[in-house]
Structures are given as C-alpha cells and as structure tokens.
Design goal:
The protein has one domain: Rossmann fold (3-Layer(aba) Sandwich), CATH 3.40.50.2020. It is 36% helix and 17% strand. The protein contains 7 helices and 6 strands; from the N terminus they run αβααβααβαββαβ. It has a 4-stranded parallel β-sheet with strand order 1-6-5-2, with helices on both faces. A two-stranded antiparallel ribbon has the order 3-4. β5, α7 and β6 form a beta-alpha-beta unit. Bound molecules: zinc ion. The site of zinc ion has 8 residues, from α1.
Length: 199
C-alpha cells in the first residue's frame, strides 16, 4: 500500500513501502488516505445497491469497522492531544434530495459518536460539478470537481480534520475537498474511505 495515499499495490506487501508513482510525481493536498476495503465484490455490490437502488446499507457495521481500524492498525492517524473533527464529503444537492440521505455523513456521524470525536457536517458545501463523477473517466474527474467544494463564508474550519467518503476512485473528490479546507486554514487532513478502487 502507498504509505501516503493508501493506493493498493497489486504486487502485494513489500519490505519497504514506498510512495506510489502518483504521490511521487505530485503529493496530494491531504496528509494521508486509508481505505477499509477494496471496491470490489460484496463491498462494491452493497455500495452500489445503496446509492442507486436506495437499499439499506450497513452503516453501523461500517462505523464499527472504521472505529476498530482507527483504534487499531490505523491508530497513528489520530495523534494524542490533537483530536481531529470528522467531516463528511457532502452530497451533490440534487442527489441528496433524491436519495434523502448522504452516506458519508451517516457513517461519519455514527463513527464520531462511537469514537468520541467532534462531527462537523457543514464544514464543506458542494456547489455542484457539471457531470456526476461516476459517469466520467478518471482523466476528466479532476477538472470536473475543481472548485465544486467550498468552506461556507465566515465558517471556522477545525485545524485537524478526518475527511470521510464512501469510495475513493480517482482521488479527485477528496483532493478538491482537501484543497478547499486547507485554503480555509485547516492544517492537517487525513482521508478515510470505506472502499478504494483497485487497479
Ligand atoms: Zn500514493
């Protein structure tokens, strides 16, 4: 796994983890990213069913797994004395209207309660990209979300943020969020996603 962006490496665990080619060429605007699962098999089926067919999603079970990871193998992501605020990636307004919920916000709210961290679902607002990200190939995703997120005027962003999203695909969405939060004054941003696209 890339120690910086958390990309899974097909060659399997190596003795000296080194940054992936993308992080080597241009480090991402967040500090670190980690994902619970590969976006494949049952995990992919559960996320797709929830998003597009409004099926129930195991929010509590996922929050429990994230809690276990953050207090176990990912414990270095939460430094003592600087507890981060959990911020979900906001939904596109029309998607929120249609589905009636935002999956990252549901998970983030359960996780923050379980682990005892502050929760701020309004730290970011989504002004709307032109095309839904899921319909675009990776190469066009960065341009599409560039400037789609902003910190509402007069809102003070917490210095340390745990940014939560459901799926990490090209990284364009969380990178756009991280840029908006950093330019509003956030010092540290750790990205945690439920699933991560595999090469
Ligand atoms: Zn990387």
């Amino acid at each position: 796994m890339c120690p910086r962006c958390g990309a899974f490496d097909r060659s399997g665990p190596g003795p000296h983890p080194s940054p992936c080619g993308l992080c080597d060429a241009a480090p991402p605007p967040f500090d670190l990213a980690r994902s619970l699962f590969a976006y494949a098999g049952d995990v992919r089926a559960a996320i797709v069913a929830t998003k597009y067919a409004a099926r129930p999603y195991p929010v509590d079970a996922v929050a429990l797994r994230l809690h276990e990871a953050l207090t176990g193998r990912w414990r270095d992501l939460i430094p003592d004395g600087a507890p981060p605020t959990v911020v979900p990636v906001p939904a596109h307004p029309w998607k929120y209207f249609r589905r009636g919920f935002n999956l990252p916000a549901l998970i983030a709210s359960r996780l923050s309660r379980r682990i005892g961290l502050p929760f701020d679902p309004l730290a970011l607002s989504r002004t709307g990209e032109r095309v839904p990200q899921a319909r675009l190939p990776g190469i066009l995703r960065h341009e599409n979300v560039d400037g789609a997120f902003r910190v509402p005027r007069n809102r003070i962003v917490p210095p340390s943020i745990l940014l939560l999203d459901d799926v990490y695909t090209s990284g364009a969405t969380v990178e756009a969020c991280a840029r908006a939060l950093k330019s509003a004054g956030a010092a540290s941003i750790v990205v945690v996603t439920v699933a991560r696209a595999v090469p």
